[in-house]
């Protein structure tokens, strides 16, 4: 109610490394960014924090599906090749068959 004397947004934004000018210039309302500060300041962000921030802002039920698989194409130099003695190319040490690798660590799916 006292926008000319409002210091709380500055303090909360500072915890997350957010500049007050950046917060006010964003198309996302400032209260939405500031409410999720607790999630943003964690070094290791968890799915529950993301779900909470999205549910709180949009007021809709949200679920998350973790470890969604995706195929990653390997560069030619990263593919296993006969005659190469690099440690990653040795059987039992990291040899990979093919041009792609299934990855389940770096992708998730939001279900809204």
From TrEMBL:
InterPro entries xrefs: T6SS_TssG-like
Pfam families in UniProt: T6SS_TssG
Protein name, UniProt field: Type VI secretion system baseplate subunit TssG
Originating organism: Cronobacter malonaticus
């Amino acid at each position: 109610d006292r926008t000319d004397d409002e210091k709380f947004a500055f303090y909360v934004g500072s915890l997350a490394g957010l500049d007050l000018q950046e917060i006010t210039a964003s198309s996302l309302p400032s209260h939405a960014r500031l409410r999720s500060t607790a999630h943003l300041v964690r070094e290791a962000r968890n799915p529950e924090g993301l779900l909470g921030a999205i549910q709180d802002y949009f007021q809709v039920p949200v679920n998350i599906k973790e470890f969604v698989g995706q195929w990653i194409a390997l560069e030619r130099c990263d593919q296993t090749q006969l005659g190469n003695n690099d440690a990653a190319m040795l059987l039992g040490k990291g040899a990979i068959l093919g041009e792609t690798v299934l990855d389940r660590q770096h992708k998730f799916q939001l279900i809204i």
